[in-house]
Amino acid sequence: MILLAANWSHIIMVTLLGFALVLVLLVALIYILKFFGFLMRPRIKVEKTAEVGEEVGSARKQSSEHITLTGNATAAIAMSLHLYYNSIHDEEPTKVTIKKVERRYSPWNSKLYGMNNLHR
Amino acid sequence: MKHFRYLFLAITLLFAFAGQAQEVAVTDELETSQVAAEVQQDIAEEADAVATVATQTADSNVWEDIAHFFETMGIVRVFDGNADSGDWRQLIMLLISFFLLYLAIKKQYEPLLLLPIAFGMLLTNLPGAGMFHSELWSAFLDPESPAYHSYGAILKEGGLLDVLYIGVKAGVYPCLIFIGVGAMTDFGPLIANPKSLLLGAAAQVGIFITFLCANALGFTEAQAGSIAIIGGADGPTSIFLTSRLAPELLGPIAIAAYSYMALVPVIQPPIMRLLTTKQERAIKMKQLRSVSKTEKIVFPIMVTTVVALILPDAAPLIGCLMLGNLMKECGVVDRLSKTAQNELMNIVVIFLGLSVGATATGSSFLNIQTILILIMGIIAFGLGSAGGVLLAKLMNVFSKEKINPLIGSAGVSAVPMAARVSQQVGQEENPGNFLLMHAMGPNVAGVIGSAVAAGLLLSFLG
Questions:
Q1: Domain count of the fold of chain A
Q2: Which residues in chain A (58-97) have CB-CB distances under 8 A to chain B?
Q3: Which of B307, B456, B458, B461 to mutate to test the interface with A (most CBs of A within 10 A)?
Q4: Which of A51, B41, B57, B109 has its CA 20 to 30 A from that of B431?
Q5: Does the distance separating the beta carbons of A18 and B302 come in below 8 Å?
Q6: What domain range is A20 assigned to?
Q7: Does the reported pTM lie above 0.90?
Q8: What is the pLDDT at residue A74?
Q9: Which helix (H) or strand (E) holds B348?
Q10: What's the pLDDT tens digit per position in B430-454?
Q11: Rounded distance, CA A111 to CA A96, Å?
C-alpha cells in the first residue's frame, strides 16, 4: 500500500535527473578547470640559439642526447622552479662581500670574553 | 498708654484662644485614646485569631511544599505517568547521551561535534528542566497557530537552546561552518587533477539510491531526500537540507550523519577491500602538478559563479565554502581567514552541536523511524563509497594513466578523514605509496558534489 501511495514517476524522475545533473555539472567543472589550467599554465620561453629551422632542430637533438642530470641536480632545479612559480623565492642582494667580524664588548660578559681570548 | 492698652487686650485674646484650643485638644485626645484602646483590643483579639490560624496553616504548608518539591523532582516526573512532564524514554535518551559522550571523549569520534551534540541531548532530556521547547517549534510549523513562522514568539517564550536553534532553523549555522571549512581546505589537488570531480560525483550515487529506498519504506519524498543526504557524509549539508525539507527528522539525521562520519575508518575499509584487487590497491599514481596562486584564487570565484548560475539552490552552501577558500587563498585578508578557521568555526560548532542535540528528545528519537534512518544512512554511506571506487576502476579501463581505485571512496566528503582512510588502506599493500594528496582531490570534490546534490534535492522537493 505504501509503495502504491507514493508518486513513483516523480520519485524516479528526481533520482535519475538529480544524479544526472550532479554528473553533468561536475563534468562541466572539469572542462572549465582544464580550460583555466591551460590558460594559466606556466610558459617558459626558450631563447633561440641558432637562427634557422633545421639547425635549431639538430642542435636540440644533440643537446638532449648529451644532457645527463643527477638526482640532486634535478631536485635543485625542481625546487628552484617551484619557488620561482609560487613567488616564494627570497630576494638576494647580489653583492658578494667579506663582512668584518664584529666583536661587541659588553661589561656583562667581559670576563668570559677575556678568557676566550686567552685561550686563543 | 493707649498702645499698652491695645497690646494687653491682644495678649489676653491670644491666651483666651490658646486656652480654648488646648481644652478642645485635650477633649479630642481623651476621646481618641478611648477609641484607640477599643481598636487595640479588637486588633489584639483578631491577631490572636490570625496567629492561631497561621500556626495551623504553616504546619500544612510545610508538608505541601515538601510534597510539591518531591513532585517536581526530575526522577519523580519520569515515573508519574504523565508523558508531558517526562517519561521513561528520557532516561533512555540520557543513557544514549552518556554513550555518545563516552565515544566523543574516550574514543575521540568526531569529538568537536559529537560532544556538544551529546550534551545538548543530555540537557534537553533532563525531566522538568525545560531547556528546549519542542512544542514552540511545533507551533512554529503549524499554519493555524498564531506563532506560525514567528521567531518573535520563540524569542519571547523560548529558552537558551530555543534561541540557539533559530540559527539551525534559518539555515545560518551550516553556511557559517562552510565558510570555515572553505578557509581550511586546499583545493590544489582538485585543480591539479580535475578528473577527481568525476569521483566526487560518482560517490553521490548513494544519495539517490537511498532516496528511492527511503520512499519505498514509506517516508515522504521530503523526508526521503533528507535521509538520503546522509550518504554525502557531510554534516552541515545534511543539517541544511533537513532543516528545510523535514525539520521533524533533524535530530536523528544529524546524529546519524556525524556518527557515520566518525565511523569512516570502520565502515569504508571493508568496502574498499571487497571491490579492489591487491594489484589495484598497490597502484602508484603520478605526482600531481604544482598549482599556481592565480589558479587557486580564480577557482572559488569560478565555481561559485558556474554552480549558482546553473543551480541557485546550491548557492548558499557553495558560495560560503568558496568565500572561505577565497579568503584563504587571496592572502590579503589573513585576519578574516584566521577568524573563519578558528573563532567563527568554533563558536558556530558549539551553537550547532548544542541545538541539534537538543532536538533529539525521547519522543522524537526513540521510534521506528530513527532505526530506519540509521539503517538508510549507513546504506547511503556504503553505496557512496562503493560508487567512487567502482568509477575509479572504470576510469582505469579507459585511461592510460592508472589511478588507484582506493581514492574513489574519498569522494564521500568527510574531509579529511576519508582521504586518510584511502592513504592507510593503500599503505597496507604498498608502504611506499602515498595516496593522501591524490585522495584529497575526490575528497574536496565530494564536498562540492554533496552541496550540489543538496541543492538539487531542495529545488525538486522544497
A1: 1
A2: 82, 85-87
A3: B456
A4: B109
A5: no
A6: 1-44
A7: no
A8: 87
A9: helix B345-358
A10: 888 889 999 999 999 999 999 999 9
A11: 35
